[in-house]
Design brief:
Largest sheet of chain A: 2 strands, antiparallel
Strand content of chain B: under 5%
Largest sheet of chain B: none
Shape of chain A: elongated
Strand order of the largest sheet of chain A: 2-3
Number of strands of chain A: 3
Structural class of chain B: mainly alpha
Strand content of chain A: under 5%
Distance between the termini of chain A: 122 Å
Number of strands of chain B: 1
Helix content of chain A: over 70%
Radius of gyration of chain B: 18 Å
Distance between the termini of chain B: 37 Å
Helix content of chain B: 55-70%
Order of helices and strands of chain A: HHHEHHHHHHHHHEE
Number of helices of chain B: 9
Oligomer: heterodimer
Structural class of chain A: mainly alpha
Number of helices of chain A: 12
Radius of gyration of chain A: 43 Å
Largest interface: A-B, 36 and 55 residues
């Protein structure tokens, strides 16, 4: 009975030997271990072995750095502190430049679309004002305009200069139908043109309404180079609309040939 | 003057003044200890040097988060311990940043002209040095055979002298777990070392 108690006690004490060595036991636990060790050779040997292992580890030579990390770290941190604001500025600048390029691209596409839409309106207006006149003229009155439109398209496609776009815009003056439509070659009045096209698509004979809208003073609203996002959204909507509906010209009885010339199905 | 201040006082002053000389004092207090632990944990001098640098950069970034809930040393070593664990994990996945040129610790100690470190060994007797060299190599090789969690706590407890409470904070375990890991790590190490000392007819005793 006494031997069994001692064995059980040994198991418990052995679990505590490392913590005893490291002074990590409570006073009560420590006293219990000491009492046991004073009467148990086996646990005393174990305690000695643990002490030896711990001491051996503590005697492993210590490594130290020859370089002083403090100076290097100070340099790194100072450099980081100086770089951060600069990096932010550069990032901002890059983002702004990308934004400007993006806006320019959108304006170019918007201009192209507006030019196409204006050409459509011109032809449509002529169609509705006088069938006979158009037939007699054999499309010759449109020739200068068409030429302008075809010239403008490659120009605008390459165009990245805001000043050029603005210069084109300055020609826009709402006036008699023909003038207004010609000025529409520039990227003026895109929202209005868009609405006109949409309504044209919905009804068979919408052109007069479109011409009416075109001739109102509001048509002269000009998107600027530093266009707001709202303007850009309208432009995008216009692009999406026109690109998704390539048959619109045929619906209205109008088509283009390979040279971009407009023909009206009579 | 700065050397007389406690870690916590240095931290408080640095927070207030942002004086880099205070920061550098903290670095100089701990860089070698962190380096030593990192080399022992990773077995690689270059990786350990990276850990030292990253530890102090991280310390600088997050010093505001130190709330005196533990000792500054434990808080700092927790950063370096986590970096060592991350580095070991990356190495296992084969994405180690630093080329693995695993040097045995004893090789490091033999290379007294190593640009990275020097070994503090004041014993002049070459025979004694050699004996110590063999002994240390054996101990470190045996230590490497332990499970990682036992090895870590033994390095922190027996080489760095941290308390169980501090080790618990460093490795993110409770004190009871640390006590158990220390004890069973030592028992395992004793088993590994006994044959060598028996064959050398040298009792495994501390000096």
């Amino acid at each position: 009975m006494i031997m069994q108690d001692a064995t059980n006690n040994c198991e418990k004490i052995k679990e505590l030997l490392s913590a005893y060595r490291d002074l990590e036991l409570t006073e009560e636990e420590s006293a219990q271990v000491e009492r046991h060790l004073s009467s148990c050779e086996e646990c005393t040997r174990d305690a000695s072995a643990i002490e030896t292992v711990a001491a051996t580890l503590s005697q492993v030579p210590r490594l130290s750095m020859q370089i002083d990390m403090a100076d290097r770290l100070e340099a790194l941190i100072t450099a980081q502190a100086n770089e951060q604001p600069t990096e932010t500025k550069v990032e901002d600048k890059v983002q702004k430049e990308q934004k400007v390029v993006s806006i320019k691209k959108r304006l170019v596409w918007g201009s192209l679309t507006a030019a196409a839409a204006a050409a459509l309106l011109l032809v449509a207006a002529q169609y509705f004002t006088s069938h006979e006149e158009i037939a007699k003229n054999d499309l010759s009155p449109q020739a200068p305009f068409k030429e302008e439109a075809t010239q403008n398209q490659p120009l605008l496609a390459k165009e990245t200069s805001p000043s050029q776009t603005t210069a084109a815009n300055n020609n826009a003056t709402p006036a008699p139908n023909t003038v207004a439509l010609q000025s529409g070659v520039s990227d003026n009045a895109k929202p209005k043109v868009q609405k006109a096209l949409i309504s044209k698509n919905e009804t068979i004979a919408p052109a007069p309404a479109a011409v009416k809208k075109q001739s109102t003073p509001t048509v002269a609203k000009k998107p600027r180079v530093d266009a707001t996002l709202d303007t850009i959204d309208e432009t995008e909507a216009l692009i999406a609309f026109t690109s998704d509906d390539n048959n619109m010209f045929e619906d209205c009885g109008i088509s283009t040939d390979e040279d971009g010339l407009y023909a009206i199905k009579m | 003057m700065e050397s007389e201040l406690t870690d916590e006082a240095l931290v408080a002053q640095f927070r207030e003044t942002k004086d880099m000389s205070l920061f550098k004092s903290l670095v100089r207090r701990y860089q070698n200890r962190i380096f030593n632990v990192s080399v022992r944990m990773l077995g690689n001098v270059e990786e350990a040097e990276e850990v030292v640098q990253d530890t102090f950069l991280k310390m600088h970034q997050s010093l505001d988060k130190f709330r005196n809930q533990s000792t500054f040393a434990a808080w700092l070593f927790r950063i370096s311990y986590n970096l060592c664990v991350d580095q070991a994990r990356r190495r296992r996945k084969g994405i180690s940043i630093v080329p693995i040129t695993t040097q045995s610790s004893m090789n490091e100690e033999n290379e007294t002209e190593s640009p990275y470190h020097q070994v503090k060994d004041d014993r002049p007797d070459p025979a004694e040095k050699l004996d110590n060299w063999e002994r240390t190599k054996l101990v470190l090789d045996s230590l490497d055979q332990l499970p990682e969690n036992q090895k870590s706590v033994l390095i922190l407890a027996d080489m760095e002298g941290f308390s169980y409470q501090e080790i618990a904070e460093i490795v993110g375990a409770n004190v009871g777990t640390v006590r158990s890991r220390v004890h069973y790590g030592r028992l395992k190490l004793k088993e590994l070392l006994e044959p060598y000392f028996a064959s050398k007819n040298t009792p495994l005793t501390s000096r």
